[in-house]
Amino acid sequence: MQRIGMIGYGAVAGYVAREAERNGFEVAAVIARPGREAAARAALGGVTVVNAAADLPEALDVVVDCAGHDGVRAHGADTLARGLPLVTVSVGALADNELYAGLTAAAKRGGTRLHLATGAIGALDALSAAAAGDLQEVSYTGRKPPAGWRGSAAEEVLDLDRLDAPAVHFEGSARDCALAYPKNANVAASVALAGLGLDATKARLIADPTIARNIHEITASGDFGRFRFTIEGMGMPDNPKSSALTAMSVVRAIRNRTEALVIG
Ligand SMILES: NC(=O)C1=CN([C@@H]2O[C@H](COP(=O)(O)OP(=O)(O)OC[C@H]3O[C@@H](n4cnc5c(N)ncnc54)[C@H](OP(=O)(O)O)[C@@H]3O)[C@@H](O)[C@H]2O)C=CC1
Ligand SMILES: O=C([O-])CC(=O)C(=O)O
Q1: Which residue among 179, 214, 231, 249 is best mutated to probe the pocket of ligand 2, counting the most ligand atoms within 8 A of its Cβ?
Q2: How many angstroms separate the CA atoms of 127 and 138, rounded?
Q3: Is 75 an active-site residue?
Q4: Relative to the CA of 189, which ligand 2 atom is closest?
Q5: Alpha-carbon span 117 to 138, nearest angstrom
Q6: Residues 3-40 pLDDT 10s
Q7: End-to-end CA distance of the chain
Q8: 191 with 207: CB under 8 angstroms?
Q9: In sequence order, which residues have a C-beta less than 8 Å from that of residue 90 and are 6 or more positions away?
Q10: pLDDT digits (tens, 9 = 90+) for 129-184
Q11: Is the overall model pTM greater than 0.80, yes or no?
Q12: Where are the active-site residues found (predicted)?
């Protein structure tokens, strides 16, 4: 049986933990912030709670980070340096060059790997294959209902309560996008890391009162041809900012560790 460690215990982590156990994995421990131990235990059902990667139990097969940028910043490198493979949804954190270098160096030191979960988006397989040829242009547009942007930088430029038409609140590089919207634009970083990189990938974010789902679109062109990919993701019931597919992609990543046949 695979034993899993987790970082974070929110909406994505809760789904992952439930599904992991239903699929025969054991959630052995979770890293929570100091003072949040009881909340973590309540959310994940009596699991061992620690505050640092050094305190995770010895015999773990994989650690999954569902805590967002702060979680991978605080615990990612220590987890990898211990030799534990890490699956993360906090992909946008890698837009910080120093953190990127620290995580990849720690993975090498630990003889392990950092796995970027595909998260709320798809088509990253086609994009990364296309990047093996000459990939010329990649654009990403992220569209969410106004409630999906609450607590984000969108509130600095828009009155989310009074929108009656779609409004663009960010346009720029995927790097700037991922850093400015840590809870909402991990997808921009995933698209960039799969394809043209964080500085050459164009990103646009839209608050749209006419939609009820999180809509992500990629357009790409290059020597391979061109594609347009659109997904309308349902938000998680307990956090509409995060699409349910995010949690499902982590479950897929951990199930792939033990299955005889793996797609992608
Ligand atoms: N790659 C992708 O496509 C997507 C990625 N995401 C990322 O996933 C993250 C999590 O989403 P979701 O579950 O919906 O968010 P929630 O806010 O529901 O959960 C976040 C959890 O992380 C915990 N946490 C935060 N900082 C730390 C830390 N330093 N150490 C340990 N735990 C920590 C929080 O606990 P507490 O606050 O009590 O400390 C909470 O349990 C998002 O913030 C976003 O960055 C989301 C959607 C798509
Ligand atoms: O869940 C989503 O739809 C996208 C998201 O928040 C992110 O990219 O961080």
Answers
A1: 214
A2: 9
A3: no
A4: 8
A5: 20
A6: 999 999 999 999 999 999 999 999 999 999 999 999 99
A7: 24
A8: no
A9: 65, 67, 68, 69, 71, 72, 76, 182, 186
A10: 999 999 999 999 999 999 999 999 999 999 999 999 999 999 999 999 999 999 99
A11: yes
A12: 216
Q: Which of 246, 12, 245, 239 is nearest to 148 (CA)?
A: 239
Binding residue numbers = 120, 186
State the burial class of residue 213 (Cβ atoms within 10 Å of its Cβ: 0-12, 13-18, 19+). Answer: middle
Q: What are phi and psi of 7, to 5 degrees?
A: -115, 120
**HEC profile for 171-218?**
EEEHHHHHHHCCCCCHHHHHHHHHCCCCCCCEEEEEECCCCCCEEEEE
CA distances from 136 to 129, 140, 218, 221 (A): 13, 14, 13, 6
| Test site for ligand 2: of 69, 184, 230, 236, most ligand atoms within 8 A of the Cβ | 184
| CB 93 near ligand 1, within 6 Å | no
Q: CA-CA distance, 140 to 191, in Å (whole number)?
A: 7
Q: Report residue 38 as tokens.
A: 């009881």
Query: 3-state class of 240 per DSSP?
Result: strand
Closest-CA residue to 44 (of 65, 29, 59): 29
For residue 64, the ligand closest to its alpha carbon is 1
Among the bound ligands, name the one nearest to the CA of residue 17.
Answer: 1
What three-state secondary structure class fits 78?
helix
Note the ipTM here.
0.99
According to DSSP, the residues that pair with 116 across neighbouring strands are 88
